[in-house]
Amino acid sequence: MRPTSRVRAAKCQMLATSFFVLLLGFSVATMAVLMYFGDHFAIMIHVSLERNPYDAVHHWAFYVGISLAALLILGASLSTTAAVKEAQGLMAGGFLCFVLVFCALLQVAYWRFRSPSQVEDAMLDTFDLVYDRAVRSPSSTQWQELVAIQDTFLCCGKRSPFGLLERSEAELCQGEEAARKDCLQSIQSFLRIHQNIVSMLTSAGLALTVYAMLLSSFLWFAILSGYNLDRKGTYTVTPRGPSMKAPSRKQRQTLTQTLTLQAP
User: Fold this and answer.
1) What is the DSSP string of 243-263?
2) How does pLDDT run across 186-212, given as a tens digit for each residue?
3) Nearest 5°: phi and psi at 65?
């Protein structure tokens, strides 16, 4: 395969990869917004506690997700424009965005490996605080917040390991609510679905950014070496002086045949 053909194939692959990176960026942004403004997450962050264990994790996850989405979208846009216009500077900018995203995703993957249950523990601790305060004083605002949490997660209370419930705890689950699942189990099931989605996005992001870095570095060196696809060469037109005569018809035909034979 000739160098020009390899560069053309790399450009097509760069455009396709940038498209998937762009989709990944919008997916990450959508996931971050849903995790920040979704009912299940928002109701846990707005509980009236002096120290909410879930607060810091909630904001950290949102800002990291939005930053990664912005870098993915920016890198895909720069790489697409650079591949079309064969701009060396834009290609270097896209490569830098992919490197930053790759490093950030490595940190996310390492954090998921070291602390796989940090988000889950923070949300369960928040629920336990609200539950304990609501049980102690059923007339407080924590009781209303607990009822709102249960209605959001479609759960009811938490099961005692001894099977004994206090009077205030028994009042939580009556009638149809008694058939609901335990709130701790509901919260865990809900979070594990989102954690699986985050793991899938992280894996896809690592694979796409590695491939995009390889393509962008190859195209950067190709543009630097002068393997341009849109510009076939440099043509110089010599102005005709007043004493120069126009070529005859035979000379024009001979010149046309010569150019045709020399064309690739």
Assistant:
1) TPPPPPHHHHHHHHHHHHHH-
2) 999 999 999 999 999 999 999 999 999
3) -65, -45
Q: Residue 218 is inside which H or E element, if any? A: helix 183-225
* Matching residue, tokens 């209370």: 157
The closest of 118, 113, 119, 117 to 202, measured between CA atoms, is: 113
Per-residue CA distances from 108 to 64, 96, 129 (Å): 9, 19, 28
* Contact yes or no for 89/224 (Cβ under 8 A): no
pLDDT in tens, 135-159: 887 777 888 888 888 888 988 877 6
Helix (H, G, I), strand (E, B) or coil at 31: helix
Rounded to an integer, what distance in angstroms lies between the CA atom of residue 48 and that of residue 46?
A: 6
In Å, how far from its chain's centre is CA 154? 30
Q: Say how far apart CA 140 and CA 204 lie, in whole Å.
A: 46
Packed helices 3-37 and 53-85: angle between N→C axes, nearest 10 degrees: 150
For residue 107 the two structure tokens come to 């940190």
Q: Are 72 and 201 in contact (CB under 8 A)?
A: no
pLDDT confidence of 99, banded at 50, 70, 90? Answer: very high
Of 33, 191, 67, the closest CA to residue 119 belongs to 191
Q: Look at the pTM and tell me if it is higher than 0.90.
A: no
30: pLDDT strictly greater than 90: yes
